[in-house]
Amino acid sequence: MKLNLQKKMKKVKIFILTIFSIFLFFGFFSFSLAKEPQSCDECEASETFCQGLSQDDCLKILKKCVELCEDKIKEVEKKISQLGSKEKSLAREIETLKAKIEKLNSEIKKVNLYLTQTKIGIKQTEISISQTEESIQEKKQKISQILRTIDKIERKSLIEILLEEKQLSNFFDNLYFLKILNQKIFQLHQMLSDLKNELTQKKNVLENEKEKAENLLKMQLLQKKETEELENEKKEILKMTKAEVQKYLSEKEALQKKAAEIRKRIFQLVGVPKAPTFGEAYEVAKWVQKITGVRPAFLLAVLKQESDIGRNVGQCYLKEIQTGAGIRISTGERVERVMAPGPPYSSRNDVALFLEITKSLGRDPFSTPVSCPMAYGWGGAMGPAQFIPTTWKNYEQRLASILGRKPDPWRIEDSFLAAGLYLADYGATSRAGEYNAALMYFSGTTDPAYSWYANSVLAIADKFEKDIEILEKAK
Predict the structure, then answer these.
(1) Domain range holding 458?
(2) Same domain assignment for residues 216 and 326
(3) Does position 345 have pLDDT exceeding 70, yes or no?
(4) Is there a domain that residue 4 lies in?
(5) How many structural domains comprise the chain?
């Protein structure tokens, strides 16, 4: 009898080793098919992207794609920032050049006005010089006539003088007046000559000023031309920069759209007919954070992990109150241990509490989805947070006081808040306490045997934290 038992045990061990070897072989083979992408461009947010791969490999690749797209978005954002600074700098330079051109235009106008004034001054001076020369010429003729008269008088003999003049005194009077007139004419001539010299000097000064103003005008015109050419060059560069910025903005928009599609595809919630988007779930998680102190990324990671485990969450109906048995929704086959019914089958009575919860919410207890049992223990977890009825009842009063109404485990806000309160009670209000809180959420213990679960949750939380950063930047 003992020998037969040993033979049977040996056969069982061989069978288990064979199954384990097959599992390792196919697991390795499946992994070998999962070729990880090297860039965001290689990723696709389509149903056929993971065709031929296991769900685990598909999720691994999708998560890798999200990381690659996030890295590319950061790279593009950096380029946009650099180009934005360059664009602003060019715009400032163009405005400065426009101001310089405006200033040069005013200076050119000023010089032109000054040149006009100088030309008018030169013309007036030339007229004055011409008039002065005519006056000098006229005075010269009169002086010459007077001098000839004096010379003629002086040449007369005494007899001629006596014969012509009745009185000798008249002759001498005339002679005296002629000499005085001669002196005055010479003085006037000298004054006119000095005036002519002064006007000539003034004309020379004006001519020099005119020459300087014309040279200044030429220089300003050249400066204006160079400035206008530089302004046109800067405008062309600015056009190119704006086009480049637009290109990167378009690329960033496409990348964000791709990342959003991937995140939406891999995020799931249990017991919710219409699954929320990641952005919607994040808004609820932020609300929970204000109440519980649990960070949104960690809360969403726990709910995400709970949704995927076993693939049978929310896939059973309770049918037998006494035994806790039920059926699988998809096939109708009988499933044992769907929900703990109390003694003699279990130590806790989830069935009674489940009937009470569903009745208070107006739900049919026999057509409300709950989790199917795993390889061990009981099923019966409810809604997105996957609380069994016993645990839900422990939090029901706290939830009601916060919500101001009857809490519903199948309602997103209520289930998120319940999960947040539970995690906070076990230390998830700090990063250091999240590990043990994750273990407690999964198994009700901190047994290291379930460390894979806590590590997986924390890894998902890190990915969600990056997604959240993108959502916050997009606001």
Answers:
(1) 265-473
(2) no
(3) yes
(4) no
(5) 2
Cα–Cα distance measured from residue 268 to residue 384, given in angstroms and rounded to the nearest whole number: 9
CA–CA separation, 16 and 182 (whole Å): 152
Is 466 part of a structural domain of the chain? yes
Is residue 358 a contact partner of residue 368, using CB atoms and an 8 Å limit?
A: yes
Backbone angles phi, psi at 327, to 5 degrees: -135, 155
Q: To which residue do tokens 């693939």 refer?
A: 311
Taking only the tens place, the pLDDT of each residue in 284-295 is: 999 999 999 999
Q: How confident is the model at residue 414 (pLDDT cuts 50, 70, 90)?
A: very high
Residue at 255: amino acid letter: L
> Could you say which of 235, 263, 291 is where a domain stops?
263
**3-class secondary structure, 21:** helix
Question: What is the distance between the alpha carbons of residues 379 and 363, in angstroms, rounded to a whole number?
Answer: 19
Q: How do 326-328 and 334-335 pair as beta strands?
A: antiparallel
What pLDDT score does 436 carry?
95
Q: Are residues 461 and 367 in the same domain?
A: yes
> 107 and 161 in one domain?
yes
Q: What is the pTM of this model?
A: 0.49
Q: Residues with Cβ < 8 Å from 155, sequence gap 6 or more?
A: none
219 and 240 assigned to the same domain? yes
* Same domain (yes/no): 254, 332: no
Q: Are residues 279 and 253 in the same domain?
A: no
11-41 tens-digit pLDDT: 544 444 444 444 343 333 333 344 677 777 7
DSSP element (H, E) containing 334: strand 334-335
More confident residue, 116 or 419: 419
Residue 40 lies in a domain: no
Percent of the chain residues past pLDDT 90, beyond the cut: 29
More confident residue, 429 or 306: 429
Domain boundary among the residues 242, 263, 284 is at 263
How many whole angstroms separate alpha carbon 458 and alpha carbon 188?
114
Q: Provide the CATH number for the domain around residue 210.
A: 1.10.287.950
Please give the Cα distance from 265 to 275 (Å, whole number): 10
DSSP summary character for residue 426: T
Do residues 259 and 271 share a domain?
no
Strand-strand pairing, 316-318 and 334-335: unpaired
Q: Are residues 207 and 353 in the same domain?
A: no
Question: Does pLDDT of 270 surpass 70?
Answer: no
Q: Is 405 helix (H, G, I), strand (E, B) or coil?
A: coil
For residue 387, the 8-state DSSP code is: B
343: left (phi over 0), alpha (psi -120 to 50) or beta: beta
